[in-house]
Amino acid sequence: MAWHLYRLGRWSFRHRWTVLSFWIGLLLVVGVASQTLAGKTSDEFSVPGIESSQAFDLIKERTPDAAPDGAQAQIVFQAPEGQRLDDATNKPLVDETLAAIDSKNVIAATDPFAGTISEDGRTAYSSVSYAKNSIELTDADRTALEDAPQAARDAGLTVAIGGDALQEVPHGGTAELIGIGIAIIVLLITFGSLLVAGMPLLTALIGVGIGVASITTLTGFVDLGSTTPILATMLGLAVGIDYALFIVSRYRHEIHLGRDREEAAGRAVGTAGSAVVFAGLTVVIALAGLSVVNIAFLTEMGLAAAATVAVAVLIALTLLPALFGFAGRNIGWGKLPFINARDPEDQSVSRTNGRRWADFVTRNKLVTFVGGLVVAGVIAIPVASMQLALPDNGTAAEGSGPRVAYDLISDNFGAGTNGPLLVVVDTKDAADPAAAVDATVQQVESIDKDVAAVVPPAPDPSDTAATQTYLDDLQATGYAIISVIPKSGPSEAATQQLVDDIRGAVGSVEQSTGADVLVTGQTALGVDISESLADAFPKYLLVVVGLAFVLLTIVFRSVLVPLKAVLGFLLSVGVALGATVAVFQWGWLADLIGVDTSGPVLFMLPLLLTGILFGLAMDYEVFLVSRMREEYVHGRPARESVVLGFQYGARVVTAAAAIMIGVFGGFALGDDIIIKSIGFGLAVGVLADAFLVRMTIVPAFMALMGDRMWWMPKWLDKALPNLDIEGESLERHLAEGADADAGRHAATPHAHVG
Question: For the chain, first and last CA: distance in Å?
Fold first, then answer.
């Protein structure tokens, strides 16, 4: 592989205009497509086969106009202190607001004065149902909903709109700028040159632009989540800069050795590029592997991010050597005199900071190893109490419309009113449909814990006309819906337990009446999805860990190295999840990153963190340990090979990790709770993996094991393919080429004499 990448690097250097034109042209094409073909993103979460989804499907099948998966809005009104909403002044304002929301897709809007007004008369809310989900609502629907409360607000009423009808798509901007700013600082410190520092940044931005524009274009043809392009941006920017950083650093080293520019470009791509290909491949496989979970939105996110990472790898291998060609001999242009950007592989530099740290770790190997494990274990403790849930408006940004609406409803009607549970009684096979519904109501009412109210579908028996209408509808549709209002909020553990309690209680109804009882609603949907992901997590972890072990065994020709790498990766995941639980669920230091309200961890975070950190952990493993192996293979003692490999790789890996932490940390400072939690978890995971695991625990363990670290059965060594990450085949090809050239030069004068 190294030989082919060497040739690719030299070809790209010579054909720099062709390479640059291709990537810029591709960026322009997908950019135009994204502006003309893009659709809308959505945050709709669903998993086929789970009970809550089956209930929604049943309602939609029996009564298509009911649109159970349609968008919902809660319009919450509050009168000033000392006033009531139902007085002669304020009531017309409420009625006018509800009349103004009318649009083509509005199915119904409940009367806030008929059961959803507070005891003091100051607060009331109306639930608005739409025929289409939030992604399909028209601009007219949203405009009508946004503008309807204006007159009421002007008159002094507080009006807040919750629900998903005005679903706000999270945007980056500030997060990207923070990450780019940190990347610029780190690159300048690393290389000490404006031109060299700008190359990784330029190639990463082009790669992210192509990836995100392509994803945006796809939204016009398939439904994609709003977090999909942001996750692709986050990863594409981080790995794009990192991969380019490794190749640029190697190019500078080759130039330092006195090679001509084209040869240096070829060798940089052939050596560092080999590690980049392997590192990128692990990230792509880990992200694409999310498809094994068989959940559509995770598959979409994984494939989109994987494609963006693949583009970043291709750009690093081709566009970078082309830029080397454009830079010519001005590669050091913009040198900053106050920064000493020395070559970490300069043999005359014997006491780098990396060397000092490696000496300390390997001299105190047992204490360092045990201490590192203790630190990682302590930070990972909160994982034992991790709770997973769908995000709700209770964790929205303070002061936002959805958060204000959520808080007003919670304060005046109870937190559970924000997430009622729906018990769907399928009476199609029941001998007595009405009796089956009544039996279900009795069973649900028998649950004392965490039930604030049970709203049966049957009207007051004294209302003969309404009762007959109810029975006719039950006969026609074959189902009835019982609403259950929990005492606790939608994402609280008590509500999740209530879902299980209801399902357990109605089991006897199904046996005695023949009816099928399903529990649904957004809260139940979140519970079901979280449980599905929790069940899928071990399977995905087994796939990822197994893949890591096999790939690293092939790369490092050792059994203990991949075992150590996999266990270290699990430590990093534990630290990342533990810190995330402590901040987002327990509320520790939450104010530092702007978490207003603590709550359960994002339901898909463990899977995402595992997949992404796996790839990033393998990056640092390859870049550090491959050089250690190279030194050991060339005859260095085991401990010395660890120290030298660390000395040569630590500076670049430190810079790469700092850039990733900066990029992910920038997203952790945003407003959207989903993006914030993903960014925070990744930033902590990279911090733990790069500095605690790869730069502390790993060298200490390798020093403890000594020569045994590189043991491998001979039969296995012969059976495995050779990926040649260290570039041994490249050196062999170059040596053979040099011998052939020497032979031709030697033969030419001899032939002339003859």
Answer: 42
Architecture of domain 420-520: 2-Layer Sandwich (3.30)
Q: Is 297 helix (H, G, I), strand (E, B) or coil?
A: helix
CATH code: domain 67-163 is 3.30.70.1130
- Residue at token pair 């401990």: 639
Point out the residues of the chain with pLDDT beneath 70. Answer: 41-46, 66-69, 167-173, 175, 330-351, 723-754
Which are the contacts of 143, defined by CB distance < 8 A and separation ≥ 6? none
CA-closest candidate to residue 707, choices 555, 539, 560, 583: 560
The full set of domain ranges for the chain reads 1-37+174-182+194-343, 67-163, 352-388+531-723, 420-520, 728-754
Pairing mode of beta strands 72-78, 388-389: unpaired
Which ranges constitute the DSSP H helices of 634-713? 638-668, 673-687, 698-705
Residue 308 phi/psi, 5° resolution? -65, -40
Q: Count the residues in the chain.
A: 754
Q: What are 123's strand-pairing partners?
A: 78
Which residues does 275 contact at the CB level (< 8 Å), separation at least 6?
246, 622, 623, 626, 725
CA dihedral 466, 472, 478, 484 (to 10 degrees): 0
With tokens 């419309």, the residue in question is 401
DSSP helix, strand, coil percent of the chain (3-state; round to 5): 70, 10, 25
Element (H, E) at 537: helix 522-556
- C-alpha span between 466 and 481 (Å, rounded): 16
> pLDDT for 650-699, tens place per residue?
888 888 888 889 888 888 887 778 888 989 999 999 999 999 999 999 99
* Amino acid (one-letter) located at 149: P
Give the global pTM.
0.82
Rounded distance, CA 176 to CA 168, Å?
A: 19
Neighbouring CB atoms inside 10 A of 746's CB total: 9
Q: Are 388 and 603 in contact (CB under 8 A)?
A: yes
Q: Cα–Cα distance between 171 and 227 in angstroms, integer? A: 9
Query: CA-CA distance, 355 to 617, in Å (whole number)?
Result: 22
CB of 129 closer than 8 Å to CB of 70: yes
